[in-house]
Design brief:
By secondary structure, the chain is α/β, with parallel strands linked by helices. The chain contains five helices and five strands; from the N terminus they run βαβαβαβαβα.
């Protein structure tokens, strides 16, 4: 008799739920580290593009739940990348994935440019953790914050 445990055909094994995916399009390493640090508080995985062209490619290849899109990037800016993503979604008849603009441009006119390009919302740099968390809860309520890590218990000093 074999020790191998083979599940019965009528009882398929359930797959673990996949973590939501966040696409970060950011060319500045410091800003990227800040975003990754903030996202560490969420139960998600992140994929990174250093320019708009790569962001579009990664979007096509992955099931993305939320996009954090810098506006000013090399090769293709975030506005054009957003237009391409929206066009792709429309052609495939897919629902729109939330895209949040992240930029140092903070004038009201800049906000309208982002929305006109197809972005859902707008965050200004320097990014504040509370602002990002608030927007993520609005646009991607299925993303959950990870439970806080508990500190190891303190050991009593020897007497």
């Amino acid at each position: 008799m074999s020790d191998v445990n083979i599940p019965a055909a009528d009882h398929p094994q359930e797959e673990a739920p996949k973590a939501p995916t966040i696409l970060i399009a950011e060319d500045n390493d410091v800003n990227l580290k800040v975003l990754e640090h903030y996202l560490a508080n969420f139960e998600c995985r992140s994929i990174v593009a250093k320019n708009g062209k790569d962001a579009v490619k990664l979007f096509h290849r992955n099931d993305v739940d939320l996009v954090l899109m810098d506006i000013m990037m090399p090769v293709m800016d975030g506005l054009e990348a957003t237009r391409k993503i929206r066009s792709f979604e429309k052609k495939r008849g897919e629902k729109q994935t939330p895209i949040l603009a992240i930029t140092a441009h903070i004038r009201p006119a800049d906000q309208h440019v982002c929305i006109d390009a197809g972005m859902n919302d707008y965050l200004s740099k320097p990014l504040k953790k509370g602002d990002l968390t608030h927007r993520m809860k609005i646009w991607a309520p299925h993303l959950h914050e990870a439970p806080p890590k508990q500190a190891p218990p303190k050991q009593a000093a020897p007497a």
